[in-house]
Amino acid sequence: MTPTSFDFIKDAWRTLRWWLPLLALLTFANALLEGATVAALLPLLATLGGDASSKPDRISRVLAESLGWFGLSPTAGTIAGLIVFLIAISAATFITQSYIASWLQARYVASWQRRMFSAFLASDYDFFSSRRTGDLVAAVTNEPWRIGLVFSQVNLVIAAVLFIFVQIVIALFIAPVVVGLLVAVGALLFATTRWWTVRAAHFGTELTKVNADLTVDTSEIVGGAKFVKATATEIRAFDRFAGSVDRLEALSFGNAFDSQIVRAIFEYSGGLLVVGLLVLGPTLLSVDVGAILVIVAIFVRLFPKITGLRQNLQIVDFHIPAFGIASTLLREAESKREVA
C-alpha cells in the first residue's frame, strides 16, 4: 500500500466513519451468501444423480446436518428451495450494499468539493494570485470526481477480494488440488499484468496536469474571445486548445486500451483453463465429475471477479494521484488562511 493510498483510507474514515464498517459487513455478507448458493449446487447434483452407493462429499454432509436441525431432509426439492431462498437474500443484500456504496461515494465527493472551495475562499489573495484560475477550477470540479471514482473502485476491490476468498474456501472443501492450480494461475496472471498497473499510475498523474491545462486554455480563450477576434488569432487559439485535447485523447486511449489488454489476458486464459479442467480433471486430478462441474461453476463466477479486480486496481492507480494533488492544494490553501 502506497502512502497516498493509506492517506486516502484515513481521510475516507474521517469523513464517513461507521458507515464504512457497515458497508464492509454488507459486502462480506453478500460474498458469503453467493458462496453458499454455489456450494449448494454440489449436494443438489448428488441428489439428482441418485447414486446411493457413492460416499457423500463434505459439503453434502454439512448441509444434511444443518437441515436436520430444522427437521428437514436433504431432498432435491428442499435443496432447490434453499438455493432459491439464498438467491433472494443475496439479491436483497446486494441492492442494499449498492445503495449505501453509491450514497457514500456521492457524499465523499461532495465533502471534498465543500472542503476545497471553503479553504479557497478563506485563503488570502496571495494564494489566488500565485495560481492560474483554471487550476483552481479544475481542482474543485475534476479532482473530487476522480477521488470519488477511487472510492467506488476500492469498494469493488474489497468486494472482489471477499468473494474470491469465500469461493476459494468453498472450493477447498471440494477439490484442494484444483484450487491450488487456480490460485497458481491467478497469481501468474497478476504478475504478468503488473506492468500495465504501473503505467496506469503514470497516466493518472499526467491526466491531472492535462485536465488543468485544458480548463485553463478553454477559460482563457473563451473569456478573451474579443481579443482573439480583434487580433485575428483564432488559428493560434485553436492550436493551443487542440494541443491539450490531443494529450487528453492519448492518455484516455492508452488507459482504456490497457484495460482491455488486461481483460483479454485474464478472460482467454480463463477459458483455456476451464476446458482443461473439464477434459483432464477427472483423469489426471482424480476429481469426481460432479465436483468438477461445481468447480467449473465456481470458476466461471470467480474468474470475471479476478479480471475485474485487476481492472479495478488499474483504475485506482490511474486516479489515485488526484487525491495526493487535491490534498496538497487543500493544505496550501489552509496554510494561507486569511487573518481576520
Question: How would you characterize this protein structure?
Answer:
There is one protein chain. The relative contact order is 0.13. The model has no long low-confidence stretch (mean pLDDT 80). Helix 2 runs parallel beside helix 8 (143-174). This protein is mainly alpha-helical and 340 residues long. It is built from 14 helices and no strands. The longest helix is centred in the C-terminal third of the chain and has 51 residues, at 234-284.
Q: What order do the helices and strands come in, and which of them pair?
A:
Blueprint: H1 3-16, H2 19-39, H3 41-49, H4 58-69, H5 76-122, H6 125-129, H7 133-141, H8 143-174, H9 176-192, H10 194-223, H11 225-231, H12 234-284, H13 289-319, H14 321-335
Helix pairs in contact: 2-5, 2-8, 3-5, 3-13, 5-7, 5-8, 5-14, 7-10, 8-9, 8-13, 8-14, 9-12, 9-13, 10-12, 10-13, 12-13
